[in-house]
Amino acid sequence: MSDTRILPEPHRYAVCASEDIPIKEFYYGVFEEIFIYYHPFINPKTIDWKEGSSFGKNDITNHCEPISWKNFLQLSSIESNKKLDIGLRTFIGGLNKQFADEETAEIIHDVCEENKLIIPSEGFFSELLLNKILDAIKKEGHEWIWCGDEFGTERKLQHIGDLIEDNTPIGNQRVNLFTHDASILLTTHWDSHFSLLCSDKGTVNRIVNYCDLEGFNCNDKTMIYWSIHN
User: Fold this and answer.
1) Cα torsion for 11, 14, 20, 23, to the nearest 10°?
2) Residues 6+ apart with CB under 8 A from 185
3) Cα separation, 47 vs 57, whole angstroms
4) Secondary structure in 3-state letters for 186-204
5) pLDDT per residue of the chain (230 residues) written in tens, 0 to 9
6) What is the DSSP secondary structure assignment for residue 214, as one 8-state letter?
7) Which of the 8 DSSP states describes residue 95?
8) 3-class SS of residue 64
9) Would you say 154 and 10 are in contact if contact means Cβ atoms under 8 Å apart?
10) Domain-by-domain residue ranges, the chain?
11) Sheet strands (E) in 79-184
12) What is the distance between the alpha carbons of residues 50 and 60, in angstroms, rounded to a whole number?
């Protein structure tokens, strides 16, 4: 008899979609609508942001302003969100050579240097967006939310108000947040500069509008690596 231990499949309402199948296929029967929202660039206004700095999300929210992908395209003359996503992935070494775009990655670096902007982090929720989204979830009638790890092996139930007040650097927090009734999921992919908002159409639309999220609704073919797939 083998002593190999195999983890059971994670609950799909609690984890990020797999990279190898369309996102809506992964969540079929669990979530009706999935909205990909971009993590904005960070413009420090009243905070001394140096290389290696580590700030809590409330520090960043209070002392920095978001720069949308739309505004960054205007600053950089990069032609599309698709190309910007590829450039960001290239910048962190997240793409194989045949998909990488070193020229765009260099443009991103140079524009950020010139304008003193911080590139959004990959694999964690945007500090500039999380509190507002959590507040929107509260307005949907939820007071508690599960905080889960990447693989669906650990979770902790926390009061949403406490999460909003929490100023721990966001890189030390969980990457899956889902309501107690499994009706809303916030998740982020470890190598991506965006997150997924998953729920029914009405809830997704209300949260997107309340938070003024920038991004797009997934169609039946949208993959995690949407920018390198047709």
Assistant:
1) 110
2) 13, 14, 31, 176, 177, 178, 179, 196, 197, 198, 199
3) 13
4) EEECCCCCEEEEEECHHHH
5) 568 888 899 999 999 999 999 999 999 999 999 999 999 999 999 998 887 778 888 999 999 999 999 999 999 999 999 999 999 999 999 999 999 999 999 999 999 999 999 999 899 999 999 999 999 999 999 999 999 998 889 999 999 999 999 988 766 555 899 999 999 999 999 889 999 999 999 999 999 999 999 999 999 999 999 999 86
6) -
7) S
8) strand
9) no
10) 12-38+123-228
11) 144-148, 155-159, 176-179
12) 13
Structure tokens at 72: 């960054």
Q: Could you tell me the two tokens for 119? A: 């590139």
Q: What is the DSSP string of 15-38?
A: SPPPTTS-HHHHTTTT-SEEEEEE
Q: Is the pTM of this model over 0.70?
A: yes
Residue found by looking up tokens 């369309």 in the block:
22
- Say which DSSP state 228 is in: G
User: What amino acid is encoded at 81 in this protein?
Assistant: N
> Residue 151's pLDDT is what?
87
The neighbouring-strand residues paired with 36 are 196, 216
Q: Dig out the tokens for 160 from the structure.
A: 């949403």
111 secondary structure, DSSP code = H
